[in-house]
Every structure is written in C-alpha cells, then in structure tokens.
Specification:
Elements lengths: L7 E5 L2 E12 L3 H17 L9 E5 L6 E9 L8 E3 L2 E8 L2 E9 L5 H14 L4 E9 L13 E8 L5
Antiparallel strand pairs: 1-7, 2-4, 2-6, 3-4, 3-8, 5-6, 7-9, 8-9
C-alpha cells in the first residue's frame, strides 16, 4: 500500500504550462521520453527561454494502455507565444485546466505511482464522484542522483466532472 496523504477535494485554477507533448507514446518508452523532455526543458530554463513558477508536471490526456498521450513540462506565469526547440525537441504552450479536483500526495518512489493512482481513483469512486480528463502529476521533489526514493513526493491530481452531470 503506497504512503499517500488523505484525499482532498478542492478547486484548481487554470495554469499555463510549457510542455513537450507525446501522442500514442508506448508506455514502455515513458522513462526515456521524460528524461529527454525534462533535459530539453532544463536547457530552455537555463537559457532564459521559459520561466517556471512551480514544480515539474506531467499531464495525461488518455488512460494508460499500451500507449498514452501526455505532456511533460512546467507551470509558467504567461503563455508561451511561440514554441521553443531544443535539440530537435519542441516545447509548446499548454495549460492545466481549472476545475474541481481530487488530490493526494505520494511519499515514495515512482514505482509506487501506479498503486497510488489506484488508491486515489478508489477514493474518488467511494466519494461518489466521476473522474474526468486530464489528470496530472506534480513532482514536488526533483529527482536527482543519490536521492532516497522513499523521501520523494509527487502530488496526484484528478479532474472531477461537475456534480449532477
């Protein structure tokens, strides 16, 4: 059982993001995609081409199956006015949507994400709520060599359909 905070139902504001997008990405390629995306984003930050206002995020626009549609990036104060290309990787404008959300924070390694998502989804269902798309992760602990995975924190966020719909 993953170590997660109690589920919180709250309202999230819309947030501009600068992201690297993948469509129909084989789930087996998720790690290499994230590494390349965040390396390019890091270079864009270092060169002053994007200015994050918070921790790294991944937005999922499809359910996990053999493939997934996702974005990896950072929240930014103002939308990008044009894409940024770093080493043939395109960084584009996007956003996290406003709406009612269910959230929990996992303390533990990325290998605990799948059971943490299952736990959050079960809590949403038990509360009689219906999840919507997208859902996202906020990486509150920056993964770095030598970090103890048991201390890492990742916030999991599910957008909820409005009640009565």
């Amino acid at each position: 059982m993953p170590q997660c905070t109690p589920i919180l139902i709250d309202h999230a504001p819309a947030t501009h993001t600068a992201v690297v997008r993948a469509t129909q990405l084989p789930v087996s390629e998720l790690g290499p995609f994230m590494d390349a995306a965040y390396r390019a984003l890091g270079e864009a930050i270092a060169s002053g081409r994007i200015h994050p206002i918070g921790a790294a995020v991944s937005r999922y626009d499809s359910e996990f199956g053999a493939t997934v549609d996702l974005e990896a990036g950072f929240p930014i104060a103002e939308p990008l006015t044009e894409s940024v290309v770093i080493n043939d990787i395109e960084i584009v404008p996007s956003a996290l949507p406003a709406g009612e959300t269910a959230t929990t924070t996992l303390t533990g390694g990325y290998d605990q994400l799948a059971p943490a998502w299952e736990q959050l989804m079960a809590g949403v269902n038990e509360a009689g709520r219906t999840p919507a798309m997208p859902f996202w992760e906020i990486y509150q602990t920056k993964p770095m060599p030598g970090i103890d995975p048991d201390t890492m924190q990742t916030q999991l966020v599910i957008l909820l359909q409005p009640q009565g719909e």
